[in-house]
Amino acid sequence: MPFSTQPSASGEQYVLTASLDNARHLSSLLRAVHFQDHATCFATANGIRVTVEDAKCIQANAFIQAEIFQEFSVQEESVTFRINLSVLLDCLTIFGTSSLPGTSTALRMCYRGYGYPLMLFLEEGGVVTVCKINTQEPDELLDFDFCSTKVVNKIILQSEGLREAFAELDMTSEVLQITMSPDKPYFRLSTFGNAGSAHLDYPRDSDLMEAFHCNQTQTNRYKISLLKPSTKALALSCKVSIRTDAQGFLSLQYMIRNEDGQICFVEYYCCPDEDITEAEL
Amino acid sequence: MKCVIAGAHLRGVVKTYNLTFQECDPLQAVFAKHMCPNILKVHSRLLADIMIHFPTSQEEVTLSVTPMKVCFKSYTEEDTDFSKTMLTEIQLNPDEFDYFQVGVDSEVTFCLKELRGLLAFSEATSAPVSIHFDVSGKPIAFSIEDMVLEASFILATLSDIEKETASQQPPCFSQRQESSKTCMGKSEKTSLDKDSNTAAVASKKPQWNGNALITESAKPTSPLAEREIKSIPRVTKKDRTGTEGTATTAAEDHATPEGEAAASRYQEFHSLFFGAVSCKEQAASSHISHSLATASDTEEDFGNVQSSQVL
To answer: What Pfam family does this protein match (any one) (chain B) (predicted)?
Structure first.
């Protein structure tokens, strides 16, 4: 592969260099958070975090840790830039999205630093594509301040139990109401649409339930349009953790296993819908 | 009104639906299927495969039968510019049908859009579709019978008399007891006799006789055509408001200049349509109730309407 012999032009150092044998390991994760055109990339020695936000209410993060890459080097403490995620995904999938067995797109990513574009070298079957994507000033990101001490209720479910539910969500409902309780109904997803309401109850002893730690009965509503994109992450994942804090902020963490069996994480944070303080069960 | 459906899901997950619904007055259609000379029975798949060839914009379709063949073709009006229209015609052999009976050669034209709804519904069941019909002007019935349900879709057909843009016979509606809920989906029909000097359209409401809806046929003012129009307000997702709530008929004694029939030759069909009832239809249905209520107040002449009990 020509990349390893790629000379750095006139001794310039890249602050971020990453190589990946299979670009799909990156592109599939980025697709799981692709609900806005722009994303903020944050790279440290531990890996890359890509953040997408909307309406100051929802934030999605995709974590690709350094171990996933064949080569990963960050020369500064941290490297941050804003980039057009749609363009980045188009480039990563420039050889097509269908995966033929045995073929994969190799990727090398280089970034010289503030003001420079992100360079992508993609190769498949001897064909090389070079992409240069302009970077922008990073945005101020929301801090949901979700640490384990603030978590009131926590459930870990196998994703297959939720996949159908999320795919079939009644989109005529404005909100998705989530009830978590140490008593019945334990874990309930509700929608209130044009034809009526629908409730999906998960019993605590279901074998879909990997962990159930609910201390308090909480019912919160979230704008369904904000949460709908999380269905993509759910589709890729094998497990999902659902947590709420005292103010009703929601944290969804998806454990995703890639083609090589490596684990990556995607998380969604969402603010509760403030119009409703008392929710109906 | 709430209807609760609860189902046990896989792994102990329970899904509960609280659906709102409304009661509607059941209607009795007056239509004798067993008196129809022509009966065809065909698998819904075949019917769907036939209809797929017609463009989605095609509103009406003509079914023409003789003992030797069956033909589905696009319906064209006389003023159709043939150089700009695409016409589709599909010919079938009698042996393509599970049951084939043609007592009288006939050519009936009905609304394809309504039929598509039926076909979508019938795909869910694998039961064959029976088609009962007579000559043009008489209703055509599409029925599906399954172990758990019976559905009957009765559509009006164009009455093609002397190539006039004619009226249609009142479709009588039936509601089978054991069947699924049926909602009346009827569209209005107005027709215009182009030869007549005065457009003969007047507002008229269907007459109620207990549960049966009997529509009058208008005595034609012009000696040429027999014109019958009846319309019943439509219950569909798309709100039909205003004048469409009232029935319109051809003039009998009162020939009034065309009002809402400004669409001139626009002909619509009555149909009984299996549809979902949603809260949004509240406006439409209450509108219907209103006009149905007013209908009984009017006293009009009875025309020669065929009415026999539905099977």
So the answer is: Rad9
